[in-house]
Specification:
It is a single chain. The protein has 158 residues and is α/β, with parallel strands linked by helices. The protein has 5 helices and 4 strands. The protein has a 4-stranded mixed sheet with strand order 1-2-4-3. Helix 1 packs parallel to helix 4 and helix 4 crosses helix 5. It is globular and about 45 Å long. 27% of the residues are buried.
């Protein structure tokens, strides 16, 4: 899977960007994501994600991660066909680095653990996972923890 990372503000170190990419690549492998596929990840400030959350979700507050799946058709959207050799466009993830730092401190674990969690959480939403029922939440949580454990990103460890 091709991952296009956008950190135009320099909010993360190169190692942190590479961690996000590794977490996403590992999850894509576990989920048997078709190849070629493409995903973009953009790292933003609270103010920027607040604007996106307001515009696209009608929620007037910053949030931690938002997923925009290209496979989900909204009203008045046109379906477009790609050539067979074109990558499958999974969608866009936007992550608030500021909110990530806040939550890591609140939960008492490392910034890297929270960053990995937000990336995998948003990615699983792109693949159709949800957490609206206890059953869905259990499945999604198990997959998130499986991926994070592979990178030794544990809860409550700073």
């Amino acid at each position: 899977m091709q991952i296009i990372s956008n950190d135009e503000h320099g909010l993360l170190t190169q190692d942190q960007v590479e961690l996000v990419e590794a977490v996403l690549a590992h999850a894509a492998q576990l989920e048997d994501v078709e190849e070629p596929s493409e995903l973009s990840v953009t790292f933003l400030t609270n103010e920027e994600i607040h604007d996106i959350n307001r515009e696209w979700r009608g929620k007037d507050a910053p949030t931690d991660v938002i997923s925009f799946a290209f496979d989900e058709m909204g009203e008045e959207e046109m379906d477009f066909m790609l050539d067979e050799d074109e990558p499958h466009l999974l969608g866009d993830l936007v992550i608030s680095v500021e909110r990530c730092r806040e939550q890591a401190a609140d939960y008492g674990h490392s910034f890297e653990r929270e960053l990995g969690f937000l990336a995998i959480h948003g990615f699983l939403h792109l693949l159709g996972y949800d957490h609206m029922t206890p059953e869905e939440e259990a499945v999604m949580t198990a997959r998130q923890e499986e991926v994070l454990a592979h990178f030794e990103l544990k809860r409550g460890e700073v």
